[in-house]
UniProtKB/TrEMBL annotation:
Natural source organism: Gluconacetobacter johannae
Signal peptide: 1-26
Keywords of the record: Signal
Protein name as annotated: Uncharacterized protein
Renumbered residue ranges of the record's region Disordered: 24-43
Length: 186
């Protein structure tokens, strides 16, 4: 039996409840834009018809078109935050939610910085989990904290993870031990 993942079921229930909460024919409520503050979470919400929503849809047009070909209509969540220490430079956070686009780790969030009028650059791609701004900065940009512990820092062009990858020697030894304990049948 096919089941919706728990996070999608919760989203479906919240969406249905909000639709039932308004009179028939009434337009959905416009959600206020939530701007994160240093040392705070980036709040992602549906903001249909807003400039943030339109920009998010344009930047993710390929993923949205591919989903439409599969008969899927992802929910577009957006948020903004002042990543730069310079006033007025705000980032766009985008998360597409659908059964096909979200995995066991949840739905991925991407972060964009505006380079010029109407031009955006992706500076962090596809992280899963809640995103918060840190008071700490690198290169004039606030660090991002994913899932409460995974710190990403600005390297001058994009954000990079600070969690070290597992040492290759340990991985190689682990594979060799496993292969020695589980020989291939001939």
């Amino acid at each position: 039996m096919n089941r919706l993942p728990r996070h999608m079921l919760a989203l479906l229930l919240v969406t249905a409840a909000s639709a039932l909460d308004r009179p028939a024919g009434a337009a959905p409520a416009q959600h206020p834009s939530h701007t994160a503050l240093p040392d705070g979470p980036v709040v992602l919400t549906q903001q249909p018809g807003t400039a943030l929503d339109q920009t998010a849809r344009r930047l993710n047009a390929g993923d949205l078109a591919a989903a439409a070909k599969r008969g899927d209509t992802p929910v577009v969540l957006v948020g903004s935050a002042p990543l730069s220490t310079r006033p007025g430079e705000t980032a766009l956070f985008v998360q597409l939610q659908s059964a096909a686009l979200c995995g066991s780790a949840g739905c991925a969030t991407s972060v964009y910085l505006q380079k010029g009028h109407g031009e955006w650059s992706k500076v962090l791609d596809s992280v899963s989990g809640p995103v918060s701004l840190s008071r700490r900065t690198h290169g004039g940009m606030h660090d991002l904290v994913i899932n409460g512990t995974d710190r990403w820092v600005w390297n001058g062009h994009a954000y990079r993870d600070t969690m070290p990858a597992p040492p290759m020697d340990d991985l190689r030894r682990s594979i060799e031990r496993y292969q020695a304990q589980h020989p291939k049948p001939h």
